[in-house]
Amino acid sequence: MKKYFLKSQSVFLYFPVLFMAFLQLSCNNDKPNAPAEEEESTATLPPVETNPPNSKYKPAFKGQTRIGGVKTQTAYTVKVFATGLTNPWGMENLPDGRILVTQKNGTMRIVTQAGVVGGAITGIPTVNSSGQGGLLDVAVDPDFATNRMVYWSFAQTGTNGTTTSVAKGKLSANETKIENAIVIYKAIPEFNSTLHYGSRLAWDKQGNLFVSTGERSDIQSRPLAQKLDAALGKIVRITKNGAAAAGNPFIGQTGVLPEIYSYGHRNVQGLAIHPVTGDLWEAELGPLGGDEINKITASKNYGWPTISYGLEYSGAAIGAGITTKSGMEQPVYYWDPVISPSGITFYSGNQISEWTNNLFVAALSGQHVARLVIKDNAVVGEERLLTTYKSRFRDVLEGKDGALYAVTDGSNASIYKIGK
Question: Catalytic one among 196, 265, 274, 368?
Answer without folding.
Answer: 196
